[in-house]
Design a protein that fits this description.
The chain has 15 helices and 3 strands. The chain is globular.
Length: 374
């Protein structure tokens, strides 16, 4: 069969462009990084090559294999998240990584996002097949089961701590439930509950700090303080990133001409490096490329495909869009700094391989023989 009939190039070409943009921008980010970190651009290129091999493997295995082994994948990753709390190497006061000598680090939470998407897709599909017209009671027990599935890795990841990824778990959960077609009343009830809970937490944080620390401890207090520091534009990271972006003008300072240092320039704040190099024009083109990729994913989701694929795509699209908006938003001071990376662009082996895993899932869905645009 002709490869053009197998691969949807509307999905593949943006990934290839992302790879070039990522490697070029990481090269520029190396300007102010210590030589001890090594050539991160070369490492990113190698991760992309390994990721391409992973995509080829997933195209061979097919998505049914992933669905059948979703709970095994999920269980192994929960064990790894638990082991991190005891044996993980602290980096920036967080135990999010296993450090593998001479290779790099491995971050289980990046792959847990995929495991949750697969497990929830399987659970939703099974519920929809077994309960054609579910009662409120049946939906309630289904919600409790799925919530427990999300809660376990959320607690383990929160203890690392990695609050940004925990938020991402629940973003995936919310949108996959919405795609499942359950009654809207559940979303309203959850919304009211979350509003009351967050109102209580922030009320204590702002007005009863001694009681807040007594109830939740100092770690959560300082974590909230760090997240909320964005509102006044404080902090070297954000201030210097904004200065780099603001001074770039329409065309930017040029490739490899990042004008000022800011921490995490190759990872969390890579958009600031890109914007400072290529200016407003380059930033608009990058955002347009991201939008084209997301649009093609949405087009795939409305194809005539299996429901389980639609549920999985709901999780994938919500995850990617949330990360894109949050990362770019925090870089320009619109949102709190949460440590969420820009998909396919930020440096990171675990991060990139998890996204390439997703690319394999997406391309498998696009190859469905009965799929066609509606």
């Amino acid at each position: 069969m002709n490869i053009k009939k197998k691969i949807d190039f509307r999905l593949l070409i943006p990934i290839i462009l992302f790879a070039g943009i990522s490697i070029a921008t990481i090269t520029s980010a190396l300007t102010y990084l210590s030589p001890s970190v090594g050539n991160l651009a070369l490492k990113q290129a190698i991760w992309y090559l390994i990721g391409a091999g992973l995509v080829a493997l997933l195209l061979y295995l097919k998505n049914d294999y992933l669905y059948q082994n979703a709970f095994l994948f999920y269980g192994i990753l929960n064990i790894l998240l638990l082991l991190l709390l005891f044996f993980g190497t602290p980096i920036n006061n967080s135990k999010c990584w296993f450090v593998i000598p001479k290779i790099g680090s491995f971050q289980p939470s990046e792959f847990m996002k995929i495991a949750l998407i697969l497990v929830l897709a399987v659970m939703i599909q099974k519920f929809r097949v077994e309960k054609i017209n579910p009662t409120c009671k049946e939906e309630f027990f289904f919600l409790m089961k799925t919530f427990l599935v999300v809660l376990i890795p959320s607690i383990l990841t929160f203890l690392e701590p990695d609050t940004g990824v925990v938020i991402l778990y629940f973003v995936i959960y919310f949108f996959m439930l919405f795609a499942s077609g359950i009654r809207i009343r559940w979303f309203l009830l959850v919304g009211v509950f979350i509003s009351i809970l967050m109102g209580t937490i922030f009320g204590l944080y702002f007005f009863k700090q001694d009681l807040f620390i007594e109830l939740f401890g100092t770690k959560l207090f300082y974590r909230l303080e760090r997240i909320l520091s964005w509102k006044d534009g404080s902090g070297l990271q954000l201030e210097n990133a904004l200065a780099a972006i603001g001074s770039a003008g329409f065309f930017g300072h040029g490739f490899n001409e990042t004008p000022i240092y800011f921490p995490e320039s190759g990872t969390d704040f890579i958009f600031a490096v890109f914007a400072s190099n290529f200016g407003l024009l380059g930033s608009i083109l990058l955002i347009l490329l991201i939008c084209v990729f997301d649009y093609n994913l949405i087009q795939l989701a409305i194809k005539k495909i299996k429901p389980i694929h639609k549920f999985a795509l709901a999780g994938i699209i919500s995850m990617l869009v949330f990360q894109q908006v949050q990362n770019i938003g925090m870089t320009i001071g619109l949102f709190p700094i949460t440590g969420i990376t820009l998909p396919f662009i930020s440096y990171g082996g675990s991060s990139l391989l998890s996204y390439m895993f997703i690319v394999g899932i997406i391309l498998n869905i696009s190859k469905e023989p009965n799929s066609h645009y509606l």
